Amino acid sequence: MQLLLILTFLFNFNLSQSDSIVSGPFVGAVTSNSAEFIIKTLDSEANVKIELSEQKDFNKSVNTPDYKSESGNFNFVKPQIKNLKPNTTYYYRAIINGSASSVINSFKTFPESGNYSFSFGFGSCQQSHYNKSKPEIFKIISQDSLRFFIQIGDWGYPDTTEKKYGYRFFTKKDLIAGSYETKYTRSYPFADLVLSKMPVAYLYDDHDFGYNNSDGSDPSKQNSIEGYNLYFPHYELANPENGIWQKFKFGDVEFFLIDTRTQRNPNKDVLNEQGNYFPKKNHSILAGYPISGEDQKTWLKKSLKESNAKWKVIVSPVMFNPAYREILKDTLIVNTFERIKLDIIDKWSGFEEEQNEIIDFVKSNGIKNLIILSGDSHSAYIDDGENSVFPEFGSSVLDVNNTKVTQRSKLAGYTLFNQGGYDGDGRCYGKVSFVYGEEDYCLMEIIEDTGKVILSYKLNLK
User: Fold this and answer.
1) Beta strand pairing status for 370-374 and 392-395?
2) Partner of 234 at 20 to 30 A CA spacing, among 101, 183, 336, 341?
């Protein structure tokens, strides 16, 4: 009887430790020597730290400082650690109130610098029909040789799942916190299979920022900015009070993550009284409002000009391709399909003056080897720069239905992406590889949920 009581006690003790974590831990903001984690505990006032080791048995481990979960932050904690070794695999687990979690994840720090060949994955638009779709794509992603994953927005659609609040989840701080808990739930394979094996970078788009085609005119945007700061392990924000734009570097590739919602002017401002497209002066997707500190457009220009990286990657939650704007001139299409018109002006195509300003800046300053990654469109596509000016690779079919942008635009007489796109009925992600050797190049691949490479394009370094 005494033995049974002891075993029962030990079982319940271990179970309570397992149940003391609601979400995480997962890792982001990884550099060559540092990382940041996100974890949510069941109870407030819990003592939290992350233990790391180069060995899975955690022999010779290191720890983050101790943190305490607080009810005011809905028990989310963001432990940080420095002085890690570059280009090294670390296993990590949470220590809650002195007891180690049984959940062990891993990641690899970045190389210090230089011509280092690597691959990463990216995509957007997932969990719109939570627990209804069959996202086999995440198993394929987890089996790939990726160093990190960039989620480019619509990581969940809380504006549609919280209908009782009039699609305005971002007016409630508890709902914002809940949307991040949903992102990290291990019952969904993105967290369980992908985030457990690699770092993640993330930018919100419209549905996880506010509502469909949302902009920066709504004062509740401050809640979305605050939520991102509190509940996601991001890189240093250039202006944390006013948006989430940031940058990071891996080897000789620098990434510029832009915020296309927080400081955006309303899309409808470029429509005249008849509802037709009429370009408006100073209409901005990057810097539409007076703010304290440096605005995003100034930051982006300065960062691109000062970068010494061989490759430069702008990560944009929405499509950049200016050729999309040509469809606005097709009165038959835009007058027949109102939704297409509203979609076009929600992309960079609706911000003609500012888009041309960025294009002219890049060209006049001799900035080379610039690539744009984009999401939002529920499609996947590649253009070598013939239509998009700069090579653009979009992928946003992680677990939503494919809108088949390239196929449908061709049927309407328009070629938006000259290298093609994904026109299947499955799901896909984007894989980008930077390769250094006898020739230096970037390889872009659209990979389907069968594991098949649907489309690839090789871009040589200039």
Assistant:
1) parallel
2) 101
